[in-house]
Amino acid sequence: MSGPMVPLMYRVSSRRQDLADTVTLALEPIHERIAAPAPGQFNMLWAFGVGEAPISLAGIDGDVLTHTVRGVGAVTNALCAMSEGDQVGVRGPYGTGWDLDGARGRDVLVVAGGLGLAPVRPIVTELLARRADYGRAALLMGAREPGSLLYRHELEAWRSRLDIEVEVTVDSARPSWRGNVGVVTKLIPQSPVEPAITRAFVCGPEVMMRFCARALVDLGVPPSEVFVSLERNMHCAVGHCGHCQLGATFVCKDGPVLSWADAEQVLRIRER
Q: Which domain holds residue 148?
């Protein structure tokens, strides 16, 4: 039996504990594989006997899918508890992705908050793999405190390069912390990009994305060149159930990635 609501079987090929409540799972197909996903899209991951949840792609390496999962409910807790060799159902990929190709020849600014670093991670890896295709590049990362930073080793590796600027800030820290303290929006005016020729990708809590998008537009980045990833309670992922509907927009189909020119209008609509 096959169809849009039937998951394909994948196996956990590796598991990494990132934070106390967050793990990164690499999934490989057992038999059939889903269609090739794009950065910014999401999959529905099925924990058998518990349910399924929408999880953004944190990495794509051939047939291997990487998902970073935070345990916040029954399904995500079950996914976080999985070990190598466990089986996962995968439906997808769904939604719109980050249009990095449209940024060729432009400066690129990536802004992430908390777990929002996971969906933009493929942007950074692809950007660095084709670095000559783009202008100046910067990654601005915000977190609650130093202990909640994702991908610390990767952040350090990216920061050590000379072709991308990486800045990290935290809401609060002990005196031993030598980095920035404050909201991530404060880093935007200091970034090395030229606003008029910049494409920005923003992902994190909704309030953070609102303030960042407005700060970028105020700086001179066109609203059509600022992209955000919306997060809503997606159940079917194919636009049938209506759980993620905002006006005429279904976040699972028309999003999750939208330009700020479109997202600002959508976010004025009260959820159903």
A: 101-266
